[in-house]
Design a protein that fits this description.
single chain, 244 residues, mainly alpha, Transferase(Phosphotransferase), domain 1, 3-stranded antiparallel β-sheet, two-stranded antiparallel ribbon, 45% helix, globular
């Protein structure tokens, strides 16, 4: 019950075209009825599963969805809300290809660092898996980076190339977190080096002819050290997202 009320309080403070709106709440004895706006009939996962290669159809489509996700995150973070579970299943896609961010059950106010483990593999930030104190808004940035990578490379691309397990449990949090940290630390952070690393696995670049600015963005987002990770505001004005 506490988790439900927490989600409702957070939804009531958010008001953005790319975030699902809470229309009404009815409370009757031990039951709560929540009326949300129509966010669409399919998740981003379902949308991509219908596409060839289970990925976006073009660099423009990757940018289209990424920009909307970033704008939703910017609004959340301005309201001091960390979503903490940005993944395929918490993004709905409407008929117009407009997204709605949903699934605020794990969300928290960004007033202090947290150390609990929450999220969905493979979108969980390394500091979360390693159970280190972390800022919720920086966790969201990492998740959005993995989404941006997989929208171009195909669903499951990250897991298949790095051998990550789809599910994380208390028994393997640390092992997975260390594996992720070791890999991304081994990449010398420049867009050119990242591109070569991904292309060596027949990654997104050979399928979509993505521009250098795409890799530049990822090099600033997928930083193991959260303090070096870009903020949403920096993402919003990045060369790749503002280009048309």
């Amino acid at each position: 019950m506490v988790k439900i009320w927490n989600e409702l309080r957070i939804l009531q403070c958010l008001n953005h075209k790319y975030i699902v709106a809470c229309r009404q709440i009815y409370h009757w004895h031990d039951q709560i009825f929540i009326v949300l706006e129509d966010a669409g009939s399919k998740t981003l996962a379902h949308f991509l599963q219908e596409q060839e290669g289970r990925r976006c159809r073009s660099p423009d489509e990757v940018r289209h969805f990424s920009m909307q996700i970033v704008e939703a995150m910017v609004h959340c973070h301005l309201k001091m809300v960390g979503h903490r579970n940005i993944c395929w299943d918490t993004i709905m896609v409407q008929e117009s290809n407009q997204i709605k961010l949903v699934g605020f059950g794990s969300s928290k106010r960004c007033r202090k660092e947290r150390q609990d483990v929450t999220g969905t593999m493979p979108f969980m930030a390394p500091e979360v898996l390693l159970q280190k104190p972390h800022e919720s808004y920086l966790v969201d940035i990492w998740s959005a980076g993995i989404l941006t990578l997989e929208m171009a490379g195909g669903m499951g691309w990250v897991c298949s190339r790095l051998g990550w397990m789809q599910e994380a449990s208390a028994d393997n949090y640390e092992a997975i977190g260390q594996q992720i940290s070791n890999y991304f630390t081994s990449v010398k952070w420049s867009s050119k080096r990242l591109r070569l690393k991904l292309e060596s696995w027949s990654g997104p670049a050979d399928k979509m002819n993505l521009p250098e600015t795409y890799y530049s963005l990822l090099s600033y987002v997928l930083q193991v050290n959260p303090k070096k990770r870009w903020s949403c505001k920096q993402l919003e004005v990045s060369a790749w997202l503002v280009s048309r």
